[in-house]
Every structure is written in C-alpha cells, then in structure tokens.
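Justification of computing resources. Each target in the renewal requires a structure prediction run like the one illustrated here; the chain below, 429 residues long, is used simply to show the kind of job we budget for.
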Amino acid sequence: MALTDFAIIRRSMSARLFSTVTTVLTVAVAVALLLVLLSMRDSGRRAFERGGGNIHLLVSADSDPLTAILNGVFYARPPRAPLSWAQYRAIAEGYPLDFAVPIAQGDSFRGFPVVGTTEEMFARVTPLPDRGWEFASGAPFTGDFEVVLGSSAARGTGLGVGAEVVVTHGTPQSKAAMEAAREHGEFKFKVVGVLRPTGTSHDRAVFTSLQSLWIIHAQDRLEQGGGSGPRLATAADLIESDRKITGIYVRVATRPGQNATALLPAVFDGLRKQGGFTVAQPKQEIDRLFAIVGNIDQVLVAMAGAVMVSSGIAIMLALYNSMEQRRRQIAVLRVLGASQGRVFGLVMTESALLGLIGAAAGVVLASVAILVVAGVMRERLGLVIDGTLPVNTALPVAALTIALAAMAGLVPAVLAYRTSVSHGLRPIG
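Resulting structure tokens:
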C-alpha cells in the first residue's frame, strides 16, 4: 500500500520529535508574544479612553495635566497639593456648567483609594460616557461616615452592605507599609452600597462624603493642638483650612443628549487664565499618554516581529540540518517513482505544517496570557480589558506565520529537489 504525502510527512516529523517540538514551541512563543502585544495595545487604549466618563475637564493642583488625569481619574496616586473650598466655589458658580463635583483623595482602605465627594457624584457624574452608576446592592451614601464600595474594592476586601470600614491615613503601597500605617480608628464607616463593575478605575474606589474625611482630619488637628480632649471631632469643629479637596470633575453645560458643546473652549481658556490650578481634558491627555508610549509600543511590536522572523529561521535550520540524514529517504522515494516536484512539495508542506501547528499553539497560549493580563489590569488599575483574543487580529497573524514558515522551507526544499539518486543511495561509510 502506497504511503500518502501526509503519512510521509508525519513519519518524518515523528522521527525528529525533539527538533519538531522545539521548533513548534519557538513559533508558538513568537505568535503568542505578537498577539498579546497587539491585543493589549488596542484594548488598553479603549479602556483608558472610556475612563473619563461624562466629565469634560478635571481641575486640580497637580503639576501638569497628564499627571492630574492619572491621579484624579485613574487614582494612580493621591495629588500632593490641595485646592481650597473657596476655589471650588468660585469655579462652580463662575462658569456655565452642568456640574462641578469636588473630590478629595489621600486616604485608603486596605490598599484601595478612598475618595471623598458629594452625593452629586452618583447623581450627575457617569463612569462611562453612555452609562450611569449601577448598584449591585445598597444605595449611595446620604450622610457622614457611610461608604460605597467599587466592585473591585468589594471583591478585594470581601465586604458588603452593613460591614464596617476603618480608613487608613495615606496610601501605603506594600503590605508592610499597610501594617505600619496609622488608621483613623476613632471613626467607623458603614458600607451602604456596592457598585456593579464599570470597567473603569472607579471600580477600585471607596467613596464617602467629603465632610467625613474633613472631620477625621480635623480630629488630627485637634489632637495635635491638644484641644480635643476625650471627645471626637464633629462638623461643628471644622474650620476653613480643613475644607480641602484635591480635584473637581467639571462638565460644561450641554444640550440634553449631547456630549460636545461649543462652550468648552471658552470655559477651558477661562479656567486656565484664572490660574492657581491645572486644567486638564481627559481625552486630550489620554491621547498624549499614548503618543508618549507609542514609540515604546512600536519597539515592542518590532521585537515581537523579530522573534517571529527568528522562528522562521529556526524552521529553516531544523529542516536544513536534517537534509543530510534524509538524502537516503529522498533517494528511495525517487526510486519508487516520486518526482522531483513531489519531493520539493513534501518539504515545503512539512515546513508550512510546522508553522500551522506553531500558530495554533501560539493562539492558545496568547488567549491564556490575555486572560491573565486582563485580570491583573482589573485588579491593579480597575480597568476592564477585553479578555478575548480578537479574531481579526489572530487570523492575519496566523496566516502570516504559516506563510513565513513556508518561505523558510524554500532552501531545504531546493536541496531536496536537487538531491541526486545515485548520491543518496551510495553505501554509508
């Protein structure tokens, strides 16, 4: 019974099993690396772009607009400089705005940022441009010492409605720093709501009222001054220096159902001329961020492409190095009636098959890696990145891999084509 081409190729690959497996793994790693980079680049950008929600501007005392957006919207770290309540009132009352929602950062709970704000946060601000807040349980806070947990914060702490929370001073970054950090243990906060996932950094936040944070820091001031005695601070103890915020979410007045407004440039210029703070547009700064990292992104993709080319070279070397041992096999095939063209096609098909198997393994490996990366991004940054491998990315990369593998087989195939029958059947030794 005559051997089919597939049977011949399968036996050839099985006879060199170690070389076949290592070559396939090389191709798989190259494909997976390229797919992960391409998928994460696009998904990550989309996740950042939607993070600004429906706000038009962020006002803060950070040093530059990009830093302001990373700190005030994505909670990278607490802003170092505060704004006064008088500055907030001047902005809120001096411009045609749909809302001006103040926020205060600086404290944390088990590593998650605590964000002081007003009830307008849940009534006016939306975490996504076209979607408002949704509660998995409970409701927004309505008074002092009540908190609302973002979905990641709730999942990370294991807490739900009715649980008690003690706020930590500052934002310690390590476990040891968390243990050493001072807690505002005099005040117990009660969880009154848990938010559904939004796919934004707000999922990591612990929201409470501004006045609650002002009171716990007024307690520090009173204790340092020796005037609090055994009692706890209340709203009556607040003075103007206690009423600090770190940012203002601003949305310029727009027509119902529209996001763009002709008033935005005028308000932006007016705020900048007013001075004393930084004014940032989320979309503009995210574009700037990706422009900055774009060169690095291109370098990484180029490196992945180089690894892909090296995998093609590995296929060529694996087949080329085996040609000396396969001369006798090729000569026997020729004697049995196989044409030079068929021998050429067998080697080319084997090369393409190595690329096909490697591409398939790479797609599987990339799918797993993307799920892992997406999970890390969700836990660390609160960004929900699509954890599925886009077909329109996987198919072109797989096709390119197979084509590259086939090209890598050209040199070994030509050697096989030119193998002399008499030389191949010459006795060994």
